[in-house]
Amino acid sequence: MMARPYNFSAGPAAMPEEVLQSAARDMLNWQGSGMSVMEMSHRGKEFTSICETAERDLRELLAVPDSFAILFMQGGGLAENAIVPLNLGQGGVMDFVLTGSWSEKSHQEAARYGSARIAASGQAQAFCAIPAPSTWQISSNAQYVHVCSNETIHGVEFDELPDLQALGSAAPLVVDFSSHVASRSLQWSRVGLAFGGAQKNLGPAGLTLVVVRKDLLGRALPICPSAFNYQLVAQNNSMYNTPPTYAIYMAGLTFQWLKSQGGVAALEARNLAKARLLYSCIDGSQLYTNPVDPSVRSRMNVPFFLRDEKGQAIADPSHPRNTAFLEGARAAGLLQLKGHKSVGGMRASLYNAMPLEGVQALVDYMREFEREV
Ligand SMILES: *Cc1c(COP(=O)(O)O)cnc(C)c1O
């Protein structure tokens, strides 16, 4: 089989080839059961074992303490922007730290279910920096404080989660970790709830992961849909209604792959090396530029711009230099590098499934392109 191209999509994103091959082998007949995983009852013994194994592997990989429930849900990160306030907001005050498009969206949606306040915002710095936690204005009566720990579009990432207790707040921290879950270790002692869509770093679209401290269950507003009530979902082991069975299966295969690679610590070291390679190429060039404060640059999503003849960053995707870059990249086997439409330019997403060789191929191509313009 011919080598597949390297896929830098921000999501749905590349999956490990071994995972795809394993799923292909078992597509028609999973482990001698005579069924595709898609055809199994979610309450039957085969799928129950798939789901329990996936949850156990995930708990081990992310070192999730027993005081947290792991929920497999649907609706994606965007649905969680409503489901979290419905479950934790109690119609009261909820604080948001705005660090880019995704936290802005979370704030806007929560405003429909209570009093959503802005504790801090990086907007004045064009979301190229994260306001220092010591400057955050946390409400004394906040039901929770929301952060997006990796902003997929703006390419900023918290290097460490804020310690709300040290800031004098007892509010639980809610973390949208959609686009960097399992790419690095995480301090659960600082977290009340973390959520993420699977399609960036865990598996295919359709599965949403929620990890919630058990003492936060049971606070849902009466209007919260039952299928989105964390307590009901937890009591029913994510089987209150039919879960996204195939997506859970694929995520489970990805968890096994992650374990075979040495777990999250090994992936974190690899991810750091990948990010360093690409940022040093950008910083060492005259053509490419990344506007983000180096202390908060994302390891997962690297937005960058090409400069024009005058040295100005080119956002416009239809600029001939941008189209030439993307065409050449495609020809070199480097896919989906176009930036998000709201910021333009380019973006390379370097999730767990992207090998170092893929980033090396990108950097080689970028250097060659720069020599030729
Ligand atoms: C992709 C993404 C989302 C939205 O996920 P959907 O599954 O499309 O709802 C939310 N937050 C972050 C940080 C994301 O990267």
The topology string of helices and strands comes to EHHEHEHEEEEEEEHHHEEEHEEH
Q: Kindly state the mean pLDDT as a whole number?
A: 97
The CATH superfamily of the largest domain bears the name Type I PLP-dependent aspartate aminotransferase-like (Major domain)
Ligand names: pyridoxal-5'-phosphate
Let me know the largest β-sheet.
Answer: 7 strands, mixed
Q: Kindly give the count of domains.
A: 2
Distance between the termini: 34 Å
Report the sheet-strand fraction. 15-25%
CATH topology of the largest domain: Aspartate Aminotransferase, domain 2
Main sheet: strand order? 2-10-9-8-5-3-4
Q: Count helical runs.
A: 9
Q: Judging from the principal axes of the Cα atoms, what is the shape?
A: globular
Q: Structural class, from helix and strand content?
A: alpha/beta
Give unreliable regions as ranges.
none
Helix content bin: 25-40%
CATH architecture of the largest domain: 3-Layer(aba) Sandwich
* Radius of gyration from CA coordinates: 21 Å
> What's the number of extended β-strand segments?
15
- Give the CATH class of the largest domain: Alpha Beta
